[in-house]
Model the fold of this input.
Amino acid sequence: MATEVLIYISLIIGIATVLSFFARLIKQPSIIAYLITGVLSGPLFFGIIGPTTSSTEIIQIFSHIGVTLLLFIVGLSLDFRVLKEVGSVSTLAGFAEITVTGLVGFLLAVGLGFSSVTAIYLGAALAFSSTVVVVKILSDKKEIDTLHGKIALGILIVEDFVAAIALMTIPLLNDGGSISYVFIQLFYIIALIGVIFLISIFALPKVMDVLARNQEVLFLFGIAWALIISLLFDRMGFSIEIGALIAGMCLASSKYTLELGGKIKPLRDFFVVLFFVYFGSQLITTLNWDLIKPALIFSAFVIMGKPIIVMTILRIFGYRKRTNFLTGSSLAQISEFSLILILLAYNLGHLSQEVMSLAVLIAIITIGVSSYSIYYSHKIFNRLSNILNVFEGKRKISEGKEKANYEVVLFGYHRIGSKIGEALKKSKIPFVVVDYNPKVILELAKEKINCIYGDAEDEDFLDELDWSKVKLVISTIPDSNSNLTIKDKLSQIKSHATFIATTEQPMTAIDFYKKGIDYVVIPQHLGGDYVAHMITKFGIDRSEYKKKGKDHYTELNKQKNKANSHL
Done:
């Protein structure tokens, strides 16, 4: 049996590799390749994954591990100061989105001829968005720490808790369980979260100081902690996803957070692939128009209707149309919880096999389409910006106040940007930092550095900046679209300011120069140039390199201590 399972998994990985290669060639998200791999591996095609194959249970277990590690790493990156900023909004928006989407989904299902019981389940399934999909893509795009990423994640957490309560409540009510028992279970889960956080505050730091002496032991501890906490939540009647997120949040303030996340990510990526493959394999009913028609209608509502509902809710809270659009487009799919809910109802005899297959087809369509919409959300927004003014709020999301006396605009303050900022401060050149990461803005505001929250790729935002006294513009953002948008803005206002851009690709740098950008920073080239300069200056004199190394060591420690002070 072990050999058979290994063969099946090898075939699945092989198919995923081929499809991923072609997906990259045509610049499409890898998640699409994984979902198609699942469909091909399922009962409708090759039958690698199915009721009669021995690989199904193993792949299902692997997929759960992937989800656990994914959300554990997300938890590691959560900063409570930033979550506090959007926590109330996410909570209210989450409950409002579930209520409105669920009600509209119910009415839509009734209109299509489904029974009231089936319509209730379908409405609930449409209301939940996929934490795994959203987190995976936003993590790939490095947008988890952005404002729309934080709001979306907050809404997803609310949805996950509601879904978990529903999954726990339905079997109890079906068996005649009392409402009071449900509230008792909820009290237990809150108490469990409190105990876990107390342990993480008072006991784990000392334990991790000891474990960190050996990198392999620290790596194993991270995996064990994530899996054990997830299992505890599962045993309490909640989901492993929520447990994994809590496990990561407990360690978010640890000084070993970055190291843990970096070591676990490659392992996570492998298991997450199998999760999406398993997801796609659940389409088991032969496709016909009676199945495809409602699937397309429900999918259209999820892909277009749900984002409009989210944007409307966030507009009420006063957020700007860009944040509203990026948040709404992130939630335009149904969740893995939706499938679990439908499967539970099917096992209880409330739903038919056709409805189960319908839910799987909706999931594949919405996840497939929303993967594109999330990956290319900035480009889509730029094209639709003019017709989205109805969703424009008046709230200013900025921790620093814009001042018109700056001569330098510095886009991005992470790594390279912080070094440039220090040089500008020493030279007493007035400057302003523009960053799209609320966490960075919070830190800059505490240091009393002039800063503005904003996206360099947002043309409307660039219009709001005062360019009258700007003599130098520096972008440390390696994204081509952002740099070209800034260049277009400078050309539009006929600015004579020097523009320094950043890219990681030499060929992109050539294109930048052709478009008139004054200087392009390529980080790896600068590193090589600096080492070459030291060789020219010091030759092979070890003492000089030791002096430079000590200075570098001192500087790195200062940066490390500064970073830890913000945790």
User: Anything to note?
Assistant: The beta strands are 408-411, 431-435, 451-453, 472-475, 498-502, 519-521. Residues 397-403 have pLDDT under 50 and may be disordered. The first helix runs from residue 2 to 25. The chain has two domains: 2-391, 408-521.
